[in-house]
Design goal:
The protein is α+β, with helices and mostly antiparallel strands. It is 44% helix and 10% strand. It has a five-stranded antiparallel β-sheet. The protein has a three-stranded antiparallel β-sheet with strand order 3-5-4. The longest helix is centred in the middle third of the chain and has 15 residues, at 125-139. It is globular.
């Protein structure tokens, strides 16, 4: 073990100097990527912004930089809707969406036709639409159910939708509409497509900070146990969510992310990434500059340094 790494029994209180060091190193990165300009409401974000938070299993949070600054969660919410849907639907969900990496861009239609309208995994847009559709059928309000869950797990009742971002996505949502109609033709979407799209765009528009999301994802580090001690997922189901995050959570860069970071993670084009150290902690980073595959340049670099400096990896 390298001297700077944390022993398995170490308290996470020693993480603050590590986070400070990471923030200093990230600021020196020569290239920080570009914000997601295909969603106009996100295009003006400053790629130099950076925040990082780590939440212990008991809810203690350590942070650095803009760790309390709300940002657009976007596809990070797919991890939470997957967990909520799995808690209600169980293994029936996997009859409607796969668990394999796609190898294609997150909004691709390519595989759907020859796979009979079954998306390759829950984190590409097609798969997330199926999950949201099923959650909406079971709850009557998928986006509202998600928001209530995030408020409860983060302890922040102020979390809300950014209607400006949701409207911006509606105005540029033709590809998601096409995916939804195509899957509906195979019977894999049950709600009216306009209803589904409204739920999906609102879901992706939720604003939250690194601290909020690190806390909200804590159930995945606690093997399915919520912040109040109740059970959301069985240990096996929590393992399933973490496994799909590891193999599919960063679009078509999941292999590189696993190689560099070594943790289950889920990114969003708002620049955020959540990552899970099962049995230890959860991490959230944010920086709006993205690489060509839609992942935060500074965020991936920070998580790479985090696992290297602490030794907190699943491998």
């Amino acid at each position: 073990m390298k001297p700077e790494q944390l022993p398995v029994s170490a308290s996470l209180k020693s993480l603050q100097p590590v986070l400070d060091r990471i923030a200093t190193e990230v600021q020196a990165l020569p290239g920080r990527g570009r914000p997601a300009d295909y969603i106009p409401a996100l295009a003006s974000a400053d790629p130099r912004r950076f925040g990082m938070a780590v939440a212990d299993l008991d809810g203690t949070v350590y942070g650095v930089g803009d760790w309390q600054q709300p940002f657009s969660t976007q596809s990070i919410t797919k991890a939470f809707t997957l967990a909520l849907e799995l808690s209600l639907d169980g293994d029936l969900l996997w009859e409607h969406v796969g668990r394999e990496p796609s190898g294609n861009p997150f909004n691709s239609l390519v595989q759907l036709e020859y796979e009979n309208g079954i998306p390759r995994n829950p984190f590409i847009n097609a798969g997330a639409l199926v999950v949201t559709d099923r959650l909406h059928t079971l709850t009557g309000d998928a986006a509202g159910t998600l928001l209530d869950f995030l408020r409860a797990e983060s302890g922040n009742q102020g979390l809300t939708f950014d209607e400006g971002v949701a409207d911006s996505e509606r105005a540029h949502g033709d590809r998601n509409a096409a995916l939804s109609h195509f899957m509906a033709s195979y019977g894999n979407i049950t709600n009216p497509v306009p209803t589904l799209l409204d739920q999906y765009f609102r879901q992706c528009s939720i604003e939250a900070s690194c601290a909020d999301l690190a806390l909200a994802a804590g159930f995945l580090a606690r093997h399915g146990i919520r912040a109040d001690g109740s059970t959301l997922l069985t240990r096996s189901q929590a393992k399933q969510v973490n496994a799909v995050m590891l193999t599919c959570g960063t679009y078509d860069a999941a292999g590189d992310f696993a190689h560099r970071v070594g943790l289950p993670g889920k990114s969003g084009v708002g620049g955020g990434i959540i990552a899970v150290v099962p049995g230890r902690c959860t991490v959230c980073v944010w920086s709006p500059g993205l690489d060509q595959r839609g992942n935060s340049v500074a965020g991936v670099a920070a998580l790479d340094r985090f696992t290297t400096l602490t030794g907190l990896s699943i491998f």
